[in-house]
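This section describes the prediction task in plain terms. A model, or a person checking by hand, is given the sequence of a single protein chain and must write out its three-dimensional structure as a string of tokens. No templates, partner chains or ligands are provided. The sample shown here is typical of the held-out split.
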Amino acid sequence: MSSAMKSTGAVVAGFFTVFVLSLVTDQVLHMLKVYPPWGQSMSSGLFLLATSYRLLYTVLGGYLTARLAPHTPLRHAVILGLVGTAAGIAGVVATINKPELGPAWYPIVLAVTAFPATWLGGFLYERRAGQ
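The expected answer:
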């Protein structure tokens, strides 16, 4: 497998890790009735809960991306951060005038934290790996 394919795979794996873990956690919290049924509004406190685990999963995604990178692990985590920031900005644009989907600060926080969280994950990997 070429280095370019491994690099792409590392970033994609990190992105899907964050995405899947976030959705699975959301679903579990709905099933446990911590969150209201899908389609019903949630309190700001519950959005803070969602923000907290999404932030942790984003750090994990950066770590995994760095771990899978064929070279320059932190650079790969940074690329994931740029992709995550772009996805977050798209989320802001899509939801900013739709208060029924939640508070405006929520997608903004996700967009703003994507880059530093993935960077932190890559940094932690490099520190642990002694690079």
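For orientation: The chain has a mean pLDDT of 95.
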